[in-house]
Design brief:
It is a single chain. It is globular and about 65 Å long. It has two domains: about 10-170 and about 345-360, Aminotransferase class 4, branched-chain amino acid transferase, N-terminal domain (D-amino Acid Aminotransferase, Chain A, domain 1, 2-Layer Sandwich), CATH 3.30.470; about 175-325, Alpha-Beta Barrel (D-amino Acid Aminotransferase, Chain A, domain 2). By secondary structure, the protein is an alpha+beta fold. Helix 4 packs antiparallel against helix 10 (about 355-360) and helix 7 packs across helix 9. The protein has helices spanning about 10-15, 60-65, 90-100, 110-125, 195-200, 205-210, 255-270, 280-290, 325-340, 355-360; strands spanning about 35-40, 45, 50, 70, 75, 85, 135-145, 155-165, 175-180, 215-220, 230, 235-240, 245, 275, 290-300, 305-310, 315-320, 350. Bound molecules: 2-OXO-4-methylpentanoic acid (COI). 2-OXO-4-methylpentanoic acid (COI) binds next to loops.
Length: about 375
């Protein structure tokens, strides 16, 4: 029989003593419990809730030595929902499976993934923050565990579901610096998958950009360094002549669940959406001549975050004339669905406590 959270004394005791801190910030407060399942002898074993804490990993494990790991970002919302709701969990599960497969790892079964989500969110339900823009941020994570110095795949893996009661990633509009030197991803690489290496490779540029007074690098394509791709943890959108323009999914850009949701919401509002190659030179010209009025970023953690300035490391900067007109409109429509205030025409939300409904969605 699968143990319920209350069968596990440590988990129950930790939750009894838990209190939400204030303010929350993003990803700073970690839930005192997590879920773990292991892949042994070619099969996913049943998982369970355990106290949050350090996991015992051999320093020669493939996740440490070769970055054989991937993760997801998703959220449980409890704003106007009676019970916490997940948003398009099947999209995160499908992307997690693609990321795992790309790094030669077995994706968790739908049973394990659904069990992790429903057990963890149900156990932590009382502590999910309920202000608009707040949520329980969820981090499914998959790690290769075998120790080897030879470049080969592990055969043992561990799936963890971590959680963090959070605010949105950014509170204010952000400033982006065009990254002219490094690349985030090349064709045939892992840019379209959510693997840790993509983020590790972005950190040096992020440091340079913060030193230069910006918040996030804006990545260009690796082959020509002339086409806009995305930010380090968010997709990129521009309002040009009242249309919504975003880089087409080229295989090097993360196919964001929020990106896709915004495209569909914009469509339903009769906003023309153009997915295309966006040369950085054309974008800067469009800002100068006034046809581009607004830039914003989007992602699960960030939701929708306006961009107030774009510039270069050498100090050139341009302010956007409108920081957030269309972004505000689209963010409201998205949050109204996620937070249960609006009709959900595409059935994007599902109660996290509905274990069998969730499993059916993932299967
Ligand atoms: C997310 O938006 O969920 C992400 O994973 C981006 C970043 C915080 C790593």
């Amino acid at each position: 029989m699968t143990p319920t959270p209350t069968d596990q004394p440590n988990v129950t005791a930790l939750l009894r003593e838990y209190a939400l801190p204030s303010p929350l910030g993003f990803g700073q407060e970690l839930a005192p419990i997590m879920y773990r399942a292991d892949y042994v002898n070619g099969t996913w074993q049943a998982g369970q809730l355990i106290p949050f804490g350090e996991v015992n990993i051999n320093p020669a494990a493939t996740c440490v030595q070769f970055g054989q790991q991937c993760f997801e970002g998703m959220k449980a919302y409890k704003v106007a929902h009676k019970r916490p709701a997940l948003f398009r969990p099947e999209a995160n599960f499908a992307r997690f499976a693609r990321s795992a497969t790309r790094l030669s790892m077995p994706p968790p079964s739908p049973e394990v993934f659904a069990d992790a989500l429903s057990q963890l969110v149900t156990a932590f339900e009382a502590f999910i923050p309920s202000g608009s823009g707040q949520s329980l941020y969820l981090r499914p994570t998959l790690l290769g565990l075998d120790n080897t110095f030879a470049v080969k795949s592990s055969e043992r893996f561990c799936f963890l579901l971590l959680a963090s009661p959070s605010d949105a990633y950014y509170g204010d509009p952000i400033k982006v610096m065009i990254e002219r030197t490094h690349s985030r991803a090349a064709k045939g690489g892992t840019g379209a998958e959510k693997v840790g290496g993509n983020y590790a490779g972005s950190l040096l540029a992020t440091g340079r950009c913060i030193d230069a007074g910006f918040d996030q690098p804006l990545w260009l394509d690796a082959a020509t360094h002339s086409e806009v791709e995305e930010l380090s943890g968010m997709n990129f959108m521009a309002v040009i002549n009242d249309e919504l323009h975003t880089p087409a999914l080229s295989g090097t850009i993360l196919p964001g669940v929020t990106r896709d949701s915004i495209i569909r919401i914009a469509d339903s509002m009769d906003i023309r959406v153009v997915e295309r190659t966006i040369p950085i030179a054309d974008l800067l010209t469009d800002i100068i001549n006034g046809s581009c009025s607004e830039l914003f970023s989007c992602g699960t953690a960030a939701i929708i975050c306006p961009i107030s300035e774009i510039g270069d490391e050498d100090g050139a900067r341009m302010a956007l004339p409108e920081t957030g007109k269309m972004a505000t409109h689209l963010k409201k429509a998205l949050l109204d669905i996620q937070e249960g205030r609006a009709v959900d025409p595409l059935d994007w939300t599902i109660a996290a406590t509905d274990a069998s409904g969730l499993l059916a969605r993932l299967s």
